[in-house]
């Protein structure tokens, strides 16, 4: 805060009264004795403060630009409990705080009904007293309604046919224990798929949940060790096969393959969905047909008691985490999919429930956030930026000397096909867009209704062809979806340091480079194998493909030479593992810089008329050119302070290069950077050999 006040004092001392130099930058003043205009907007002051406090000006920028741009950030910031602090992390915390405020403010009458349901869901999630008071009785009643016992040792009961139990279980929970039927969409087509049910059970998980059940009753209703052993043996005998084949089959064909009455099951399944499926004519995409046959062959040979016991546990495990706090905490402790690599962080109940509500109601929470916090002008400016980056990428492709003309034509067609989803979809704010089936009820009931809602996709034909389905519009991230041939830039990332920085040079260097990064993913070592329709199709000539891989190998070798100083002298980056992201980083920055130059030309030229550059400078950094600010803004975006444990973890699980290496590698390959910062040829930041793919 003290440094911010110093900035304001400097403003008063340095600026003479002057009118705004441009409608583009209305808040700019001219330094006395100079023609140089300084931006005085809050955004520019914040950007200057952020960049200056992060820098280590004692470092030669041509030796280590990351240390030059981020050395101060690493020296001045403390390491939080998470082991990592960054500008992106600060923005994530800001977005999380704002969402928390939305939940804590509660339900208001004017809210759309789905937003009310999202807040109701959150409030029930955080109400430990209510869930413990309600107890397990709702779960036991639901198990009985499905056709299963309250507890698996319940004697003198008739075991229902398991095909009947699966129909009831699907109807009441949206889940089945042995397979998944899903409604999927691709290229505007909607269809059904069959997959084996992928549960990640183990013997310890079984035993721990039986022990928790015994603790609830305060006596042993089941021998936990013996039951866990028997259950794991049956589970292991059913699941463990592998079959990557997928084929289209009629319902009759699937029935003949498995011996199961799919017409009866699907008739019940589809009653809850508006998806129209002809049981006689339409086909199902079966993923793993030999797996399906073997699975059902084993089920027909199994004892009814084995199937009944496993089915009971499957539904018990689906419901129990939504009952008492003891079962919720046991689920959090034991569920394999919740165990992330590295040190486990304790997440408080509020934040866990917020994350859960955001997953269940992504559109409702996005609507509430965007309505309250998002600046529509930022979306409009970003859409202009995306168009500039698209044009820049087109120019770069046209100028490639290593690509033949026919492959260039295919590449340009694919670039044209990339769907640009910026901020949020227009349909999100339309009346009725958030409507969904009412999922209100007690905590268990709400979650079972949510399962059904996701499984049956009630709105599958609503807003046909709409994008963003199921995606958060307020994620601090950006995405490329290769099969959709689409990029997504959510509203959540449209804040400083990524955009809203006051100057176009900083916005194009940060969010612009990220947008370019996502576009380039369509042409990296994975994306290049997909055509303009999102289908795997080799559209490259042999000679051009050979040239592509030569350039890829150059970058693999280059990044493999990067040392990770925080982990010692012998640890190096895996250039092959990170190659896709490195290609995207390098291409994205080149596209963003050219896009920025397109913008500058548009601002300074009108036919034969040439106008002065309207872009002002930053206070305290007014000695730097706009192009120097561009590269400094790019590096500043990636400033981070991390513990060695976090860096080591990321090397193992992340396909991105660490921040230091992604800045150094990307800038060292960029000749415009070397020219802007006057780095001698052969210096660390201006090597003689540069690796450029796009």
Mean pLDDT: 89
CATH topology call of the domain at 127-344: Neutral endopeptidase, domain 2
Q: Order of strands in the sheet with the most strands? A: 4-5-7-6
Portion of residues in helices? 40-55%
CATH hierarchy, class of the domain at 127-344: Mainly Alpha
What is the number of beta strands? 13
CATH architecture of the domain at 127-344: Orthogonal Bundle
Backbone CA Rg? 29 Å
Q: Unreliable stretches, pLDDT < 50, 5 or more residues?
A: 1-23, 460-465
Q: How many separate helices?
A: 27
Most strands sheet: 4 strands, mixed
Span of the ends, CA to CA = 42 Å
Q: Would you identify the CATH H-level superfamily of the domain at 127-344? A: Neutral endopeptidase , domain2
Specify the overall morphology.
globular
- Sheet-strand content, in percent, reads 5-15%
Q: By helix and strand content, what is the structural category?
A: alpha+beta
What is the topological layout?
Blueprint: H1 2-14, E1 28-30, E2 37-39, H2 42-54, H3 65-76, E3 84-86, H4 87-104, H5 113-126, H6 128-134, H7 137-146, H8 162-173, E4 179-186, E5 189-196, H9 203-217, H10 224-238, E6 246-250, H11 251-258, H12 262-270, E7 283-287, H13 289-301, H14 304-319, H15 325-334, H16 349-360, H17 362-373, H18 376-398, H19 405-417, E8 419-423, H20 443-456, E9 479-481, E10 486-490, H21 504-520, H22 542-560, H23 579-604, E11 605-606, E12 609-610, H24 626-637, E13 640-642, H25 644-653, H26 659-668, H27 671-677
Parallel strand pairs: 5-7, 8-10
Antiparallel strand pairs: 1-2, 3-13, 4-5, 6-7, 9-10, 11-12
Helix pairs in contact: 2-3, 5-16, 7-8, 8-14, 8-20, 9-10, 9-15, 16-17, 18-19, 18-21, 18-23, 21-23, 21-24, 23-26
């Amino acid at each position: 805060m003290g440094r911010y006040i110093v900035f304001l004092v400097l403003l008063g001392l340095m600026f003479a009264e002057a009118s705004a130099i441009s409608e583009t930058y209305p808040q700019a003043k001219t330094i006395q004795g100079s023609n140089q205009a300084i931006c005085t907007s809050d955004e520019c002051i914040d950007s200057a403060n952020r960049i200056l406090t992060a820098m280590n000006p004692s470092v030669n920028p041509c030796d280590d630009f990351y240390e030059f741009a981020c050395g101060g950030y690493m020296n001045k910031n403390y390491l939080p409990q998470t082991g990592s602090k960054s500008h992106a992390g600060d923005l994530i915390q800001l977005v999380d705080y704002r969402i928390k405020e939305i939940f804590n403010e509660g339900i208001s009458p004017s809210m759309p009904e789905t937003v009310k349901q999202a807040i109701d869901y959150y409030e029930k999630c955080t109400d430990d007293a209510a869930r413990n008071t309600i107890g397990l009785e709702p779960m036991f009643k639901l198990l009985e309604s499905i056709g299963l016992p309250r507890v698996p040792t319940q004697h003198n009961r008739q075991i229902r046919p398991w095909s009947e139990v699966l129909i009831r279980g699907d109807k009441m929970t949206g889940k089945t224990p042995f397979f998944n039927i899903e409604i999927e969409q691709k290229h505007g087509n909607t269809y059904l798929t069959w997959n084996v049910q992928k549960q990640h059970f183990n013997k310890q998980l079984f035993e721990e949940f039986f022990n928790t059940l015994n603790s609830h009753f305060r006596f042993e209703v089941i021998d936990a060790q013996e039951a866990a052993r028997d259950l794991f043996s049956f589970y292991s005998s059913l699941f463990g096969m592998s079959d990557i084949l997928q084929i289209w089959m009629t319902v009759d064909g699937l029935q003949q393959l498995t011996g199961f009455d799919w017409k009866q099951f699907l008739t019940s399944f589809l009653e809850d969905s508006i998806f129209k499926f002809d049981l006689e004519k339409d086909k199902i995409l079966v993923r793993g047909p030999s797996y399906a046959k073997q699975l059902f062959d084993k089920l027909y040979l199994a004892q009814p008691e084995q199937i009944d016991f496993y089915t009971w546990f499957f539904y018990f495990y689906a419901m129990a985490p939504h009952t008492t706090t003891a079962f919720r905490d046991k689920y959090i402790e034991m569920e394999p999919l919740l165990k992330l690599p590295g040190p486990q962080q304790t997440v408080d109940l509020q934040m866990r429930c917020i994350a859960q509500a955001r997953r269940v109601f992504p559109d409702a929470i996005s609507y509430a956030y965007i309505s309250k916090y998002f600046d529509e002008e930022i979306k409009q400016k970003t859409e202009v930026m995306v168009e500039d980056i698209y044009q820049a990428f087109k120019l770069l492709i046209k100028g490639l000397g290593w690509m033949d003309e026919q492959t260039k034509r295919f590449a340009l067609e694919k670039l044209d096909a990339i769907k640009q989803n910026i901020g949020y979809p227009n349909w999100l704010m339309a009346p009725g867009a958030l409507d969904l089936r009412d999922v209100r009820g007690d905590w268990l009931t709400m979650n079972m209704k949510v399962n059904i809602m996701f499984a049956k996709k009630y709105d599958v034909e609503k807003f046909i062809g709409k994008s963003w389905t199921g995606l958060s519009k307020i994620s601090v991230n950006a995405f490329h979806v290769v099969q959709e041939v689409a990029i997504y830039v959510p509203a959540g990332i449209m804040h400083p340091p990524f955009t809203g920085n006051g100057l176009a040079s900083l916005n194009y260097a940060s969010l612009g480079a990220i947008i370019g990064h996502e576009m380039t993913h369509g042409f990296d070592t994975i994306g290049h194998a997909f055509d303009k329709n999102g289908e795997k199709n080799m559209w490259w000539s042999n000679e051009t493909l050979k040239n592509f891989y030569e350039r890829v190998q150059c970058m693999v070798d280059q990044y493999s030479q990067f040392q990770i100083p925080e982990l010692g002298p012998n640890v190096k980056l895996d250039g092959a593992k990170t190659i896709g992201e490195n290609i995207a980083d390098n291409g994205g920055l080149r596209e963003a810089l050219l896009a920025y130059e397109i913008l500058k030309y548009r601002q300074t030229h009108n036919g034969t008329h040439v106008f002065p550059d309207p872009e002002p400078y930053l206070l305290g950094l007014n000695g730097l050119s706009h192009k120097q600010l561009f590269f400094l803004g790019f590096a500043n975006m990636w400033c981070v302070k991390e513990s060695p444990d976090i860096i080591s973890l990321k090397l193992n699980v992340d396909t991105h290069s660490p921040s230091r290496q992604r800045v150094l590698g990307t800038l060292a390959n960029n000749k415009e950077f070397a020219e802007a910062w006057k780095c001698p040829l052969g210096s660390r930041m201006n090597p003689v050999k540069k690796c450029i793919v796009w």
